[in-house]
Write a structure and sequence with these properties.
The structure is a homodimer.
Chain A lengths: L1 H12 L13 H5 L49 H4 L5 H6 L5 E2 L1 H5 L2 E2 L3 E6 L2 E4 L22 H6 L6 H8 L2 E5 L1 H9 L17 E4 L4 E3 L2 H4 L12 E2 L13 E5 L6 E4 H6 L4 E8 L5 H7 L12 E10 H7 L12 E9 L5 E7 H5 L6 E6 L2 E2 L9 E3 L12 E7 L6 H4 L28 E6 L12 E9 L6 E7 L7 E2 L1 E3 L20 E8 L6 E10 L24 E6 L1
Parallel strand pairs in A: 1-5, 9-18
Antiparallel strand pairs in A: 2-3, 3-4, 4-5, 6-7, 7-8, 9-10, 11-12, 12-15, 13-14, 13-18, 15-16, 15-17, 19-20, 20-24, 21-22, 21-25, 23-24, 25-26
């Protein structure tokens, strides 16, 4: 109610609103707005404040079409009460006749907050100036200013939902001239995902465009090295198709000037280095946070993590060849990666890592051209990707096109306004993305892959076998996994496996370079007195970091870093 | 009862027992034995298995005189029921007359398990062969074989308790000849702690000999850098008095041969490097584990942690001067430190760290000769100590005498059989010290220093202010502290302080080199509806590691690594 009052005030008194009053968002829309105000501050930082609705039932559509690939938070899913009673669709967009006719030339003049932000969609003209501050994807929406929405919505498929059209309809100010409509249709917007590769049908798809999928959990513990086809896939944009013959990697920012390397150069001018490293998405196990309270992001299960063998040139060697000298470290603090995957505006995926990780002999950062002994598959970054072991998946940039040594972190959305952790008390009204560091090393993690949650265990068995994985960021080795069959009251120590072959304890990797996970297994006497097993696992790494007991206290609005004890209940 | 039966069997059938049957331990003693069997295995590994008594009430004296300094677990504190009803003291030792008279020469023949282990104490002769396996300090007891106990007990003051004498009395086999008694008295056993330095009276003493003490918690947050007098003190042995003019540091194990450095050499031949680093004892907050279930070790509160500014030569520079070359890393994996503090047998305190920490430019390991801008105080390692930032206090060896580059970890008791973490399900019967890595980097930690637990808060206040510290090992910076006033249901973010001056957010140290703690503070509206505040804090580090919620699941038999959320209850 308080919000409703705030919105009414805005609608009445906002100077921006004066001349567009008849088409301003309805009060009802205001009550379900996702974003409350624009970031304001300096620079190109995007702001993603979001209103957390006080009426829980209204959230039923919330995030239905979650963030479909862009780190931008594209979560339009809120319906308002009024809207639910209406039948709004594309047809509605055309209902509002009697509106002025505008030329494309006129529309194009409105490309800023000062001059108004206009867009076109299926022949209609929309003044979305006021909506910019509410856009869950932040000011990225300005990329469409003065032009057509269609190519953007083709890229971010989450927009193709009725309630998004409903919101748009409130902003209609006119019709595009018939001539210009014809011109637009001539420039056909093709599906940028049409040439994405085939994927294995066993994968559980969290988002089709862009493609985000994880394997069934039990497959993860079938083999120490995950077959590439089953390796979790997390794309932010369409898969680019790169010709290996003409591929070029630019290395910029060093005293030696720009170094350009072909794929052949990478393979022949630098020693080939191989590591086995586990990659994990920051959003792995997000679904458990969603059960506590809705978060924004793909609803990953426990399998947004996989382990592969990677080969390539060491980033260190390439930076040295490009002129890196110790004195560079006096001003350069980061190494930025730019992908060749891009949106319709040409904005590429980007991220950065601290330079000490990049240049350290023990950092083992690769410019990888092989995965599990073969060319890197299309979905995993062909022909070259960064592999930054011990660091969150988001910094392991695929389809690598450019490396920039710099004083600052990557300015990309994904580095600045995404992939950061916050207090459970921080909501979209109070979040300040500048207050938290970009996720690099990940914390200790483990999960149970077998048995599955809800699986029934036959009471006649003598023993029960539990399997899972455990991994920690920063090269910290997993040194122990504790398993409980009684919800955490008593604990037993699982057997760890650190290679494809043996089951026994292998010799440890050098300290701080344990990049790969441990698979674990325990066979324990079946507790016949139990009516249900509550199986729990928790791991400990070489810095003796332990997992938190429960999800709520680590809940955060983006649902990242979900590493509480994993629990599975099996009736028996 | 089962144990009782096992003990009876042993007493009857053990071949070792046959000729000493009349003086074998009583069944009652057997029922309270602390150690169930000797380690057996190869090498000099000490075994410290301990019997966990099934009768909880009998534990009332347990660990009363806890491990007074040695890592060896000297916890004789168990009384047996029979003993409690008697009045046993030194006098009792003399009661058993009619026993044979032995010469010192005869006693000296019994210095092994094969020949029997005899010792003398105040004129009595004791055959403690059977007790060796039960000794909580392990086979270290053999160091006294064939001689007098007095000098050892002077070193480990925990033995000076009635129940220890009571146990000893059961093993009496004779009297020492009057002549040899006179000789012994001539060699007066002085108190090795007599020359320990004066300490500040505000310190809370956990053990006087050796000296172990922590400041009142609220003092910790009074200043970012802890004054040396208040810095927690954790000594394993008497404080050695080293003449700085003749002090020599030996560096061994490198191709260059042995390098010997005077204090002057250290100060003049190598650049002086200064860091601010927090040191924490592995046993900090052990008292919270003791509340869950008794553990072995000094009952530290929350203040076995402090922060100081250290200056000295970098270990890296000294190792390079001693001949370290990159190829050394092919065989050398550890750098061992030996202290000049020693027990009566000449055994020195020792520990080791991984060589990559020692040699890394970013490791910042110091051979420190200054603490807070002055000569290092006697209690903190004068004239030179190792400062290994980010690593558990136990590896920051004081009164440093020797550095050894080696393939193996230190063989010291404190590296091999102490300062390791185990599963809560592991007890003294099942523990295998080889199965866990020696603690190096410590996990994320935080605690509330103000208000104190149990302090009453005046209901008339408008706001409540909470203060504390937060720190993480491995150079991981504390990036956030969450505070709850309602036991963890809701959370607010505290303000962090990373230097002596400012309250605001300071610029971060380089990644992986945040050696010093953050002090934190929050002032929140007083929740007038509450009858009691349950204040909780939890911190997050730059790898987004979080503290575990509760103590039980991280409980371990040595009570180390106690880093669950800290909770304080204040009635109001």
């Amino acid at each position: 109610m308080l919000l409703l009052r705030r919105c009414l005030s805005l609608a009445r008194f906002s100077p921006l609103n004066s001349q567009r009053h008849q088409v301003s968002p309805t009060v009802a829309l205001c009550a379900v707005r996702l974003c409350s105000s624009s970031g304001g501050g300096g620079g190109g930082g995007e702001d993603q404040r979001s209103y957390q609705h006080t009426h829980r039932p209204r959230w039923r559509h919330a995030l239905a079409g979650l963030l479909a690939g862009s780190g931008a938070v594209l979560a339009y899913g809120l319906h308002n009460h009024k809207a639910e009673q209406e039948d709004i669709s594309v047809q509605n967009l055309k209902k509002r006749s009697g509106l002025p006719i505008y030329s494309q030339e006129e529309v194009t003049k409105h490309r800023s907050l000062e001059n108004g932000v206009w867009v076109t969609y299926k022949g209609g003209v929309y003044d979305i100036t006021e909506f910019v501050a509410m856009h869950p994807g932040g000011e990225k929406i300005l990329l469409a200013a003065g032009g057509a929405l269609e190519p953007f919505w083709a890229l971010y498929a989450v927009h193709n939902q009725e309630h998004v059209l409903e919101i748009l309809s409130e902003y209609k100010v006119g019709e595009l001239s018939v001539e210009d409509q014809k011109k637009q249709q001539a420039i056909k917007s093709s599906d940028p995902y049409a040439s994405d590769p085939e994927r294995h049908p066993v994968l559980h798809v969290n988002s089709l465009k862009p493609f985000n999928a994880e394997p069934p959990p039990e497959i993860l513990t079938d083999s120490y090295v995950t077959p590439s086809a089953f390796f979790f896939k997390r794309n932010h944009l369409p898969v680019p198709h790169v010709d290996p013959a003409t591929y070029q990697l630019r290395v910029e920012g060093l005293p030696g000037g720009v170094l350009t390397l072909s794929l052949e150069d990478l393979k022949t001018r630098f020693p080939k280095h191989t590591i086995t490293a586990t990659l994990q998405c920051a959003g792995n196990r997000r679904s458990e946070m969603n059960k506590v309270k809705q978060v924004k992001g793909l609803n990953w299960g426990i399998a947004a993590i996989s382990n592969a063998t990677w080969s390539g040139a060491r980033l260190r060697d390439v930076l040295l060849a490009a002129g890196y000298r110790p004195d560079v470290a006096q001003w350069a603090h980061h190494v930025q990666f730019e992908g060749l995957d891009k949106d319709v505006t040409g904005t590429t995926y980007g991220a950065s890592i601290p330079i000490n990780k990049a240049i350290s002999e023990e950092g083992d950062v690769l410019l990888a051209y092989e995965m599990n002994g073969e060319d890197i598959p299309l979905d995993h970054g062909f022909p070259v990707r960064a592999v930054v072991p011990g660091v969150v998946g988001a910094r392991n940039v695929k389809w690598l096109g450019k490396i920039v040594v710099s004083a600052e972190e990557s300015s990309s959305h994904w580095q600045q306004n995404d992939y950061k952790g916050f207090s459970p008390g921080t909501d979209w009204d109070t979040v300040d993305f500048k207050s938290a560091p970009a996720i690099q090393e990940l914390p200790i993690q483990s999960a149970i892959t077998t048995p599955a949650d809800g699986a029934t265990i036959d009471r006649s068995v003598e023993t029960v076998t539990v399997k899972g994985y455990a991994w920690s960021g920063g090269g910290r080795e997993v040194v122990r996994v504790d398993v409980s069959l009684d919800g955490g009251k008593t604990w037993q120590v699982a057997q760890l496996r650190g290679s494809e072959e043996g089951q026994g304890p292998e010799s440890s990797p050098p300290p701080g370079r344990a990049w790969a996970w441990k698979l674990w297994e325990i066979t324990a006497p079946f507790p016949h007195e139990a009516e249900e097993l509550e199986i729990v696992c928790k791991a400990v790494d070489s810095s003796y970091n332990a997992q938190p007991d429960t999800v709520s206290p680590i809940w955060n609005l983006r649902g990242v870093l979900s590493n509480a004890w994993h629990r599975v209940k099996t009736p028996c």
